[in-house]
C-alpha cells in the first residue's frame, strides 16, 4: 500500500483535508494530529474499517478503541444512560484531552469496543482533528498512530516511521502540544474511576466531581479485560530494556548507577531532567543522555520523542528518573512505568531496593 503524505502547511490544505476525509468515508485508515498524540483513524461506525486499524498497528484483539467526535450532541447518539458525572465532565472539559467510558448505543460495532458493553468517547480540541471528523461525517475510531507497544508519535515523521505502507495517508499538522494521551475516566461506576491519566489531571477531576478513584492497573495490577486502551499490555516501550528509579534519592542513586555501568563497559541510556543531566559524565560512546528539560509539562511533551530516540542510539539498557505524581506527574509516571515494564527501583540515601520487577542488570540493587 502506498501511504499519501498531506502537509497541511502547504497552500492546498483544503484539498488535502477533503482527500483525507474521502479516505475515511471509503473505509480506509488515516493518521491525524490531536492535541495529545497522533491518532490512527477510521470510520467508527464501520466494523470492517475499524478492523484495518488493528491490522495496521498489530494491536491485540481485546484492546478497545476510542471514538472521536466533533460535537457534544454526539454523546446522545452514541451513548445511553449518561450519568450526571459524565454530563458534568462533558460540560467542563470538552473539547479537550479527556475520554469518557460510557454505556454504548447499538450504533457502535463490536470491533470498536472488542465486545464490551461500554465505549470510550472523546472530543479533541485540535482543529485538524475536529475538521477531519466533521468532513468525514462520522465519529472516528482512533488509537495512537504507532505500532502496538512502541512509544506514541507526537509528530508526522514518527507516524511515518511506523505506518508508511500500512495505511492510506498521514495528515501532517505539526507537533502535538500535550504529548501524552487523553485522560480516560470510567463514568459507569458509582465513583468515577481514572483508567488512564492524561492532560486532565486527577486534581482537576476532583475539583469538579469530588471523589475520584484510580484503577489499580495504573500501578501494575493487570486488568483481566481492559475497559480502555493502555490498561493491560506493555506500552510506550523503547527497544532497549528500561529501569525506573523512584524515591527520595532517585537522582543521586541513578547517577551512581550510570557511573558503575560505564565503568563496567556498558553503553547506558539515561532519561532524566536537565538538573540531573548536568551531573552526568560526558561520554557519547558510553552514556546516551536524553533530558526532557525542567518541568513535568516538558516531560509530557517530549517523553515519547526521547524514548523513540533511544531506538536509534541503541544503548544496552535505559535508566529513567521518576517524578512526583502531582498534576501531569501521574500521567507521565504511568507512561514511564509501562515503558519500563514496571521494573522499578526504590532509592534512598541508604541504598536501592526493588519496588517491582526482576532481572535488573549489574549491581543496581544494594
Please tag this protein with its features.
366 residues, 21% strand, 6-stranded mixed β-sheet, alpha/beta, 12-stranded mixed β-sheet, 12 helices, 2 domains
Report on this model:
- The protein is of the alpha/beta class.
- It is built from twelve helices and 18 strands.
- It folds into two domains: 4-219, DHBP synthase; 242-356, Threonylcarbamoyl-AMP synthase, C-terminal domain (Rossmann fold), CATH 3.40.50.
- The protein has helices at 13-25, 47-57, 74-78, 84-93, 110-113, 127-136, 156-163, 202-209, 250-263, 274-277, 296-313, 329-339; strands at residues 4-7, 30-33, 38-43, 66-68, 79-80, 98-104, 118-122, 140-141, 169-172, 183-186, 193-196, 213-214, 242-246, 268-272, 287-291, 317-321, 344-348, 351-356.
- Strand 14, helix 10 and strand 15 (287-291) form a beta-alpha-beta unit.
- The longest helix is centred in the C-terminal third of the chain and has 18 residues, at 296-313.
Chain-averaged pLDDT:
94
Indicate the overall shape.
Answer: globular
Report, as a whole number of angstroms, the end-to-end distance: 52 Å
Write down the CATH class of the largest domain: Alpha Beta
The major beta sheet can be summarized as: 12 strands, mixed
Count of helices?
12
Tally the beta strands. Answer: 18
Structural class: alpha/beta
The CATH H-level superfamily of the largest domain is: DHBP synthase
| Residue fraction in strands | 15-25%
Q: What value does the Rg take, in angstroms?
A: 21 Å
